[in-house]
Specification:
The protein is α/β, with parallel strands linked by helices. It has a single domain, classed as 3-Layer(aba) Sandwich (Rossmann fold). Helices cover 36% and strands 25% of the residues. It contains 10 helices and 10 strands. Strands 6-7-8-3-9-10 form a 6-stranded mixed β-sheet, sandwiched between helices. Strands 2-1-4-5 form a 4-stranded antiparallel β-sheet, covered by helices on one side. Bound molecules: adenosine-5'-diphosphate (ADP) and magnesium ion (MG). The site of adenosine-5'-diphosphate has 10 residues, from helix 1.
């Protein structure tokens, strides 16, 4: 599945944070076409901050982000036109129905249904009335159907039922098999390791482990126990809607 092409995005000695204080330090990371890369870590480790810096939403305090082989200075909306897709938690327009969400995202309904046939019966339903899983299918359809080069996804499957998580991750894996590069921040460690080519573990703003899922399996318990508590709370509060 791996592509040996140039990295789509790279962080080199990146420091980024808020105000004068970096929360992510000396971070090196890259994502290449065709690979799914997982970014794991406890709540507050700096995962979202990292994604925001990669997308151009936060400016590096030190080091750099390289996008398509060049030092990146453009903000998120410009990178979006160049093929960078960002999916966060529930990024749908809740007042529009499903089909209008697709239309506003310039995505053909047929293409979205090809990816997620589950949405067919929900086309005329307000996106705010969809289940959490359906909303994330809609978000992901909007992102993937525009054929991005790179997907940055922040907790795509937060609080969703296991079968829905599988469904979303499989869609990302299949897109990567067709050439997409994906960087996934995920709480579902074992599930994401099943589909990832490479993994980074972030602890207190620093990468402490990097490798293939196979390399990391021996450390899985340690990785998971560092944030199981947070995960259990999140799942307990949101499961019911799916
Ligand atoms: N907008 C913000 N302003 C100030 N501090 C923030 C902001 N967002 C996050 N932080 C802090 O930065 C650190 C990393 O947060 P974040 O990147 O959201 O972690 P994660 O996504 O891994 O849970 C935390 O200590 C958090 O409190
Ligand atoms: Mg986060």
């Amino acid at each position: 599945m791996h592509d040996t092409g140039q990295p789509l995005i790279e962080a080199r000695a990146l420091a980024v944070g808020y105000g004068a204080q970096p929360v992510v330090h000396d971070l090196d990371l890259e994502v290449r076409p065709g690979e799914v890369v997982a970014l794991l870590g406890a709540n507050g480790a700096g995962k979202t901050t990292t994604l925001r810096a990669l997308s151009g939403d936060l400016t590096p305090m030190d080091g750099e982000v390289r996008w398509l082989g060049e030092a990146a200075r453009a903000p998120l909306h410009r990178r979006a036109r160049q093929g960078l897709a960002y999916v966060g938690e529930r990024t749908v327009f809740t007042r529009l129905h499903t089909e209008d969400n697709l239309r506003v995202g310039r995505v053909a309904t047929e293409q979205a249904l090809h990816l997620f046939p589950e949405l067919e019966k929900r086309l005329k339903t307000g996106a705010g009335m969809l289940s959490g899983g359906e909303q994330q299918m809609l978000s992901l359809a909007r992102a993937l159907c525009r054929a991005p080069k790179l997907l940055l996804a922040d907790e795509l499957s937060l609080g969703l039922a296991p079968l829905v998580v599988d469904r979303l991750l499989r869609a990302v894996r299949e897109a990567a098999d067709r050439g997409l590069g994906a960087l996934l921040v995920e709480q579902h460690v074992r599930k994401v390791l099943d589909i990832a080519d490479r993994v980074y573990v972030l602890q207190r703003g620093r990468i402490t482990m990097a490798g293939t899922p196979k390399d990391l399996r021996g450390n899985l318990d340690a990785i998971e126990s560092s944030y199981l508590a947070a995960k259990a709370t999140a799942e307990k509060t949101t499961y019911a809607t799916d």
